[in-house]
């Protein structure tokens, strides 16, 4: 091969290396063979790296929730609130609640009972709804109390038994709900709130100035402590030493406000509790939370709408005193006087329609689940001016 020269006259030496494209061709075969041999390991390494980058480099994940440390609790003192509690547990089961369920009931029901219905409901609750049964000694403001029955229900002075929820110290937190309710959604998310001894909503339906409403014991998220229940009994006994003291219905609410009014976490009443009395009101500022708020154009959530109020509520509480609770028939003259007025119109309105539907739904489920009829209607003129009407345990 003749010798070649560059433009400057210097001889060009022949290279001992192949052009680069030919070098890569030579490497391709061994690389392909290596990839085939270790393909599975390489793919797993890529997947592991991707998972690490996706999860490992972010915020640490919260530990899984141990739902066995939390429980909903109900108490029963007679046939009526036994059925009501059963309805609450059925709703929790149907709505997919993950927390445990506990029913405190009179220890007398463990013995031979003429009322087989309560015993049957206890067995169904335990078997079908995974309810843990806890017999207790009932008390009232005077000491030992006996359970009521279908025809002779318990009076409101036995409501102190709801505070026995503090005795359930096998749990980190328990949630007590009064049983005279319609539960539309479970409340499991409350168990994950920051730790606090007590959390309750405000009794927004009471006619008190804004910011001065008491907390309501209809929903109580609490940390059990057996000493607390004894303390409540001691407080009540000390009050009774005052000759001017008069025991009133909802004295359980007085007790928890006396003890926790200055330290409890305040739960928002929207969406956690809606009173049926709201549908009879002309002014909804307390429910809407618009006291002293801006005037003029407001978002839809700050305007009253009866249908939307029900749809957003997780819990409906029946409270239309002196009209009886939904497990008691309405006196017709009382219904005409107490039902939502619809602005004085003889026609219906959303408030009246929703209000009646809530009562009808409760009674329908009560008949279906408990096979129990409503109690007879009281005579209206005997209760219309009273606030402490019968059958008002819950």
Brief summary:
Keywords: Membrane, Transmembrane, Transmembrane helix. This is Glycosyltransferase family 8 protein. The chain is of the alpha/beta class and 394 residues long.
Distance between the termini: 112 Å
Structural class per helix/strand content?
alpha/beta
Q: How many domain modules?
A: 1
Shape: elongated
The CATH C-level class name? Alpha Beta
CATH fold-type name? Spore Coat Polysaccharide Biosynthesis Protein SpsA, Chain A
- Overall mean pLDDT stands at 88
**Unreliable stretches covering 5 or more consecutive residues:** none
The total strand number stands at 12
The CATH superfamily title: Spore Coat Polysaccharide Biosynthesis Protein SpsA, Chain A
How many helices? The count is: 12
Question: What kind of sheet is the major sheet?
Answer: 7 strands, mixed
Under the CATH scheme, which architecture would be assigned? Alpha-Beta Complex
Helix content: 25-40%
Q: How much strand content do the residues show? A: 5-15%
Radius of gyration: 34 Å
């Amino acid at each position: 091969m003749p010798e070649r020269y560059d433009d400057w006259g210097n001889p060009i030496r022949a290279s001992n290396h192949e052009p680069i494209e030919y070098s890569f061709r030579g490497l391709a075969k061994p690389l392909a063979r290596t990839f085939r041999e270790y393909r599975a390991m390489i793919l797993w390494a890529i997947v592991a790296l991707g998972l690490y980058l996706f999860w490992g480099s972010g915020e640490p994940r919260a530990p899984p929730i141990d739902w066995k440390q939390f429980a909903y609790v109900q108490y029963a003192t007679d046939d009526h609130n036994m059925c009501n509690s059963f309805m609450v547990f059925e709703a929790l089961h149907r709505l997919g609640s993950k927390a445990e369920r506990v029913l405190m009931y009179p220890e007398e029901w463990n013995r031979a009972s003429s009322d087989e219905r309560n015993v049957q409901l206890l067995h169904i609750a335990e078997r079908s709804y995974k309810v843990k049964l806890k017999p207790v000694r009932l008390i009232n403001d005077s000491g030992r109390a006996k359970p009521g029955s279908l025809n002779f229900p318990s009076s409101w002075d036995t409501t102190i038994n709801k505070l026995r929820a503090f005795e359930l110290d096998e749990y980190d937190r328990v949630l007590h709900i009064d049983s005279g309710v319609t539960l539309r959604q479970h409340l499991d998310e409350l168990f994950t709130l920051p730790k606090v001894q007590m959390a309750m909503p405000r009794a927004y339906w009471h006619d008190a100035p804004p910011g001065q409403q008491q907390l309501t014991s209809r929903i109580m998220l609490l940390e059990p402590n057996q000493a607390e229940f004894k303390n409540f009994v001691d407080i009540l006994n000390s009050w009774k030493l005052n000759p001017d003291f008069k025991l009133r219905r909802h004295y359980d609410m007085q007790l928890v406000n006396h003890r926790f009014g200055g330290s409890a976490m305040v739960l928002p009443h929207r969406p956690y509790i809606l009173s049926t009395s709201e549908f009879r009101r002309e002014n909804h500022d307390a429910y809407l939370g618009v006291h002293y708020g801006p005037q003029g154009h407001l978002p839809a959530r700050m305007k009253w709408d009866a249908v939307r109020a029900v749809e957003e509520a997780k819990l409906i509480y029946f409270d239309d005193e002196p009209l009886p609770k939904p497990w008691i028939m309405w006196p017709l003259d009382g219904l005409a006087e107490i039902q939502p007025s619809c602005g004085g119109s003889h026609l219906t309105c959303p408030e009246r329609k929703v209000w009646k539907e809530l009562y009808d739904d409760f009674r329908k489920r009560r008949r279906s689940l408990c096979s129990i009829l409503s109690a007879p209607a009281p005579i209206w003129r005997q209760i219309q001016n009273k606030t402490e009407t019968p059958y008002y345990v819950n």
